[in-house]
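#struct-pred
JK: can someone run the complex with zinc ion? inputs below
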Amino acid sequence: MRKLHFIIILALVTGFTNLSFAQRPTTTDYHANNRFEQLGTGLPTPNTYRTASGAPGKDYWQQRADYDIKVELDEPNNKIIGSETITYFNQSPDALPYLWIQLDQNLFAKNSPGPISRTGDLGNQTSMASLATISDMHYSNADYGYNILSVKDAKTGKALPYTINQTMMRIDLPQAILSKQSYSFSIDWNYRIVEFSKGGRRTGFEAFKDGNNVYEIAQFYPRLCVYDDVTGWQNKQYYSQGEFALTFGNFKMAITVPNDHVLGATGELQNPAQVLTPSQLKNFEKAKTSDKVVVIESQQDREKAEKGKPTGKKTWIFKADNVRDVAFATSRKYIWDGKMQEVAGKKVLCMSFYPKEGNPLWGKYSTEVVAHTIKTYSKFSVDYPYPVAISCHGPVGGMEYPMICFNGGRPEADGTYSEATKYGMIGVIIHEVGHNFFPMIVNNDERQWMWMDEGLNTFVQYLTEKEWDRDYPTRRGEPQAIVDYMKQDPKNLVPIMTMSDNLINAGASAYAKPATALNILRETVMGRELFDYAFKEYSRRWAFKSPTPADFFRTMEDASGVDLDWFWKGWFYTTEPVDQDLVEVEWFAVDTQNPELNKAEAKKQADEKRNTVARQRDKDYIKESVVEKNPDMKDFYNTYDPYKVTDADKKKYEAYLASLSPDERKLVESGLNFYTLKVKNKGGLPMPVIVKMQFEDGTDSVARFPAEIWRLNDQQVSKVVTTKKKVVQWTLDPYREIADIDEESNHFPRQPAQPTRFQLFKGGGFQRGGGSNPMREAQQNQQPKPAQQGGANKN
Ligand SMILES: [Zn+2]
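RT: done, structure tokens with the ligand placed:
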């Protein structure tokens, strides 16, 4: 069915260079816009710390903080008792009269800046955790937060004056630390660990019915703030949404826990012979070189331990070099397994720690996913540099630290689980292990720019999920998955370039949208080869350094030769959506001037026009006209056929052909179709125009035009497309790669919309997805005796 708009036969005037349609400028009237101007002053001025190419400059510097931490878990009281000596290396050009320290545990203290500034309503159903989060109840009646017992000069032992400002602490130094000097000081502290379900954030413990706890311990020691060339001291309060800005250093950490615990931490275990049982030690050593998962401590052994009591304490010692943070997880419930993954010739020990409540999912997948993640991320960014990579299961749904992360994903008590639980668990492990690369290695300021780690990480997570399973039900990264968000009322949207604590719907604005934007850059704007090279170059340049957004934007252009300022502007600095509208398509063909063809076509058209309804009815109504009745009334014009090809016509045509050059003649005889497409940019965000042509013979083809076609007019453009075959249907964005929010306007001729289907019966058993658990249904169908139960997953 052809529904083409109309046909114009264009005259070819005097020759090829004079094709009349090639000279009409009317299709791209200038419409002033700055969408394709350079970011220019929108970015910070390059300097010798950070260059205009996006690389670290010749004078780039960053601070360093080494930690020697001793910490004990007081399990009966759920307390952390710690002391640390910090050596701070002032590698800045400046003298520092004081130091700023982060006291993250004060998030849970009375009058913490996060909870008291948080707003919200109460619905009919409110959990304890959400009540604690939005109300002034938030731990305000209990003694949570840090007790700072002492702050001392490490050499002299003299107390140092300090001032606590909510989640920040300033230590006043006896004299300023000069450039290139270092200073050591020590802090003693303790705090009560929050129970995660009662308003915990990124750390806490979970109490199980069997009387045992799982502890996921992080932000547990006073940590140096970042001092850098961008912000000076980054001492912005910890409101809870905006994560951390941290300084690299070398860590030594001694963790004392009850002697029946199994423990995982950032770093390499220094004293395995002292803390592991002979069988644990044997399996631990085996795992280091095994490419199959080795169970280091089994479920059976842990089920015994769960019923026992500790008989003393053990101190686990770890060393971690060039990390920006440390964390650990510990429990007498912890099952432990591991395998080796080689990255660039180095053996990395991948491990998992999980209570039996995580099985069968955790034993089957966790360590395999850790290994797959470090391998895949290394391909897209930099080689994983650390000796271990760990995934722990406990109360925290997903949180990252160097070499270790805390992840959710728990099956039902009967050991079955939904698809959402399975892929949610694999996805979160990929995500949190992936954070080793962004921000633990490429160390952005998370408190300022959430997207720099979450967006980049979610993007590589998308790639890594696809390499796990090409049908992986990826949540974020596909352009069509961001459409519902981009369609929203602009008052609910914030640009990606929004400070972390001010982001609305951070899951979309700092994870999904930047990840989608990068995916679009890779697949549609730059192509995989240019993108992958530039993205890797960014990772390489900024590994173990601290980039800003400008460093990322500049590097991506510098390494690829693609001007992306328009893309950063549209996707990162505005909330505009993509909405292209294929308004109309006009069809042109070159006039061959062949009288045989032209006159036949003209005759056909004249005949069609003459065929009016009156003429049709007159056929019978007028029995006999005058000229029919009386032929004498006819003359020359009654038989003259203006559509008959004459000798004069033929001669003229021959003369015309003789006047053409071979190329011109080829074009005239080509039978090519010329179409002008009028496309409107209704959404505002300029994007490449991708159009699929369905030909009348059933085949198709796709034409792609870069976003720069909008540079003279960002509202409407015309584009001429040439085809040999006739096009019967045009479709914009046929593979859904630009996140166009209205697909109905992407067709020409317009396609009827799909009907909205309504259900005749509601509440039937046909719902799928989310919480449904077909695995359990299948097992119940197989096992008609419900009394039969395995003992593995009770509790
Ligand atoms: Zn994340």
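RT: quick notes.
The chain has 20 helices and 31 strands.
The pocket of zinc ion is lined by residues 431, 435, 454, 457 (CB under 6 Å).
JK: thanks, will look after standup
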